[in-house]
Design a protein that fits this description.
There is one protein chain. The protein has about 400 residues and is mainly α. It is about 75% helix and about 5% strand. It has 19 helices and 4 strands. It has helices at about 1-35, 40-60, 65-70, 85-90, 100-105, 110-120, 120-130, 135-155, 155-160, 170-190, 200-210, 215-240, 245-250, 260-275, 280-285, 300-330, 335-365, 370-375, 385-395, and strands spanning about 75-80, 170, 290, 375-380. The strands form 2 sheets. It has a two-stranded parallel ribbon with strand order 1-2. Helix 1 (about 1-35) runs antiparallel to helix 2 (about 40-60) and helix 7 packs across helix 10. It is elongated and about 105 Å long.
C-alpha cells in the first residue's frame, strides 16, 4: 500500500488549488442554470474531482528519473487479453483445499493488481449513474475511454516527457478498469440510497434560485469588473504602441484616472442597463435583473441614483479620505476645520456603507441602502415555469 500513499498525499496537496480554479466555473454554471450554488452539489462535484485526481496520480506516480528510464529494457505493452488470468493460474499460491493458503494468495500481485484496477474505476461508475444520470451503455463507454486515457498516458511515457514508457500499458488493465465502472453502475443504489437524488438536488436549487442572495450579486459584480478590466487591457495594449500616446499616458495615467472610472460606471452600469432593462453582462450571466418599483422597464434616472450612491459618492468620499492629510496640514485654519468636518463625514459615510452590507449579509436582508434610495431591487430571471420544466427534463 506504500506505493499508493504518495499519489493520494500529492492529490491532497494539489486538490485545494484545483478546487479553487474550478469553483468559479461551477458557480457561474450553477447560477446560470439554477440561480444558486448548493453546498451539497459542491461536495459531490469536488469529491468527484478529488477522486479523478487521485486516480490519475496513481497511474503516473511515482515519477522515476529520466536517466533511469532511458536504461529500461522491460516490456512496454501487453496486448494479450485475459493474460492476467493466465498469470494468476501460473503464479498463485492458492490451494483450494488448504485454507492456510488463502491469505498469502490474496496478498500476491497477481491478485492485487487486477482487483486494484477494478476498484479504481468503480467510483467512476457510481458518479456517472448517481450524479450525471448516464445510462448503462454510456457508463461502459466513458469507463473504457477513461481507462484508455490512462493506458495511453503510460504508453506515451507521460506524453513523451520520458524517452520511453516507465510503466506497462496493459490491455487487461483496460478490461478490468471498464469492468470496475460497470460494477460501480450496478452497485450505485447500495452506496447512494441515503443520499438525495439528483432530481432532489436540482429541485432544491431551482426553488432557492428564486431568492437573489448577496453572494449571487457579488458574483455578477466580479464578472462585470473582470470584463471591464479585460476590455481596458485589450484597448490599452495597442494604444501604448503609439509613442505620442505613451508619452502622454505616462504623465496622466489615463486608465488609472478617476474620470475614466466615472465614465466606465456611467456606460456599463447606467446606460447599458437602461437599454437592456436592468442587466449587465455579469447580471445576465447569473440570471438576475434590476427592476424599478412601479415600472415595467427600469429608467435611467433610477439607475443613475442607484449607482451614483454606490459608486460616485463612495468613490468621492474614499478619494477625499486618501488625500485628507494634505488639507488637514494646511496653514489655513478655516481650511483645516472644513477638512476635519469633511473627513469625519466621509469616514462615517464609508463606515455606514460597510456596516450596511455586513448587516445585510448577516441578517439575510437583500435590499441595500442605495436600492432603497433609488426605489430599485434585484430579481431572479429564472421563472417558475422554466424551473419546473427543467426539473422534469432532468428526471
Amino acid at each position: 500500500m506504500g506505493a499508493y500513499e504518495a499519489p493520494i498525499k500529492t492529490a491532497i496537496v494539489v486538490f485545494p488549488f484545483l478546487a479553487f480554479a474550478i469553483s468559479f466555473v461551477f458557480i457561474i454554471y450553477d447560477y446560470r442554470k439554477y440561480g444558486i450554488f448548493l453546498f451539497r452539489r459542491a461536495v459531490i462535484l469536488y469529491s468527484f474531482v478529488f477522486y479523478l485526481l487521485c486516480a490519475y496520480f496513481l497511474v503516473i506516480l511515482p515519477l522515476p528519473p529520466r536517466e533511469e528510464v532511458a536504461n529500461y529494457t522491460s516490456q512496454i505493452i501487453e496486448l494479450r487479453p485475459f493474460y492476467s488470468v493466465v498469470r494468476f493460474l501460473d503464479e498463485t499460491k492458492l490451494v483450494v483445499g488448504d485454507s492456510s493458503t488463502y491469505l498469502p494468495a490474496l496478498r500476491q500481485g497477481v491478485v492485487l493488481e487486477p482487483v486494484f484496477n477494478i476498484l479504481m474505476l468503480l467510483p467512476f461508475g457510481i458518479y456517472l449513474r448517481y450524479y450525471f444520470k448516464l445510462p448503462f451503455r454510456k457508463v461502459v463507454l466513458f469507463g473504457f475511454l477513461l481507462s484508455l486515457f490512462f493506458e495511453l498516458t503510460q504508453l506515451s511515457g507521460l506524453y513523451f516527457i520520458y524517452p520511453r514508457p516507465y510503466r506497462l500499458a496493459d490491455v487487461n488493465d483496460l478490461m478490468n478498469n471498464t469492468l470496475g465502472a460497470v460494477i460501480g453502475y450496478a452497485v450505485t443504489p447500495v452506496f447512494t440510497f441515503l443520499l438525495p437524488t439528483r432530481a432532489d438536488i436540482d429541485e432544491a436549487a431551482y426553488r432557492k434560485g428564486q431568492d437573489v442572495t448577496i453572494f449571487r450579486r457579488l458574483a455578477a459584480f466580479m464578472i462585470d469588473w473582470v470584463l471591464i478590466w479585460f476590455a481596458s487591457f485589450v484597448i490599452e495594449i495597442p494604444l501604448r504602441l503609439i509613442p505620442q500616446y505613451r508619452a502622454w499616458d505616462d504623465q496622466v495615467h489615463v486608465f488609472d484616472s478617476r474620470w475614466l472610472f466615472f465614465l466606465t460606471v456611467f456606460l456599463v452600469f447606467m446606460l447599458i442597463p437602461t437599454l437592456t432593462n436592468g442587466q449587465t453582462l455579469g447580471k445576465k450571466a447569473v440570471k438576475i435583473r434590476i427592476v424599478e418599483e412601479g415600472q415595467s422597464r427600469i429608467r435611467f434616472r433610477a439607475l443613475f441614483m442607484r449607482y451614483g450612491y454606490f459608486y460616485y459618492i463612495f468613490s468621492i468620499s474614499s478619494a477625499f479620505l486618501s488625500s485628507a492629510a494634505i488639507w488637514l496640514n494646511s496653514s489655513n485654519r478655516w481650511l483645516q476645520i472644513v477638512s476635519f468636518i469633511l473627513t469625519i463625514f466621509c469616514f462615517l459615510l464609508n463606515t455606514l456603507f460597510v456596516i450596511n452590507i455586513g448587516y445585510s449579509i448577516l441578517k439575510k436582508r437583500r435590499r441595500l441602502f442605495y436600492e432603497k434610495a433609488s426605489h430599485t431591487y434585484t430579481i431572479s430571471t429564472i421563472t417558475v415555469d422554466e424551473k419546473f420544466e427543467k426539473s422534469r427534463e432532468q428526471d
